[in-house]
Amino acid sequence: MPRTKRRCRARSRRAPDRTREALLQAAVAEFAREGYGGARVDRISRAASSNDRMLYYYFESKERLFHAVIERCYADLVRAEEALVLDLTRPRAALDALIAFNWGYYWDHPELLSILASENLFEGRHVRDAIPGDFSRAQFRFLDKVIRAGVEAGVFQRDVDLFLIFMTIMSLTYFYRSNLHTLSNYLAVDLASQDLRARWLAHVQHVVATLVAKPAAAAAAAERDVEPPAPTKRPRTRQGPA
User: Fold this and answer.
1) CB burial string 98-110: b at 16+ within 10 A, e below
2) Residue 116 and residue 197 in one domain
3) Number of structural domains the chain divides into
4) What is the CA radius of gyration of the chain?
């Protein structure tokens, strides 16, 4: 086959992919800005330089499009987390970095917060239908890898409840960011200030590290690669008269 024809066929195959991607990106922006109820298919089509017919061809309905939007948002989050390079020889620093990633991701992707706020009005039914369990399992595996490294280094407890640690990280990072404006007005502070953001991140890292850490003496001994000191016994005191 001549090279020119091969190029034409390759371009013709890529064109539908580009159209679908443009529609999906426009939909993310529209649903984030307007919520599910306020989002309009015609605005999404225009923003993607496409038309409603193509939108329905690829996504069938507004609801199916919303499914695809939620799946894209979660997939982007998991992909970004899996791209992290953590130094597992320093488990505490790796855990801090993982927490900082979650904290920073919510600031860098406000569209995720808006879309999830809209989805909570539907009691999570689209997430239930659209999101494969692979996403949450991937995040748990990543956290588990960090915790296991700390256990093997002797600085984290062996009986850490991974679910509770995961929920603690998600709650403390997500809540602050998702309620930024209401809490700022309610508390009469600027929660978006760099100072408060840095203080909160340090606080969350300290809270989580405290939850998973071994008692100080045992952890220090593990770092020195020696056995932890045995507890000292109190000397017996004589009872009664001498």
Assistant:
1) bbbbbbebbeebe
2) yes
3) 2
4) 25
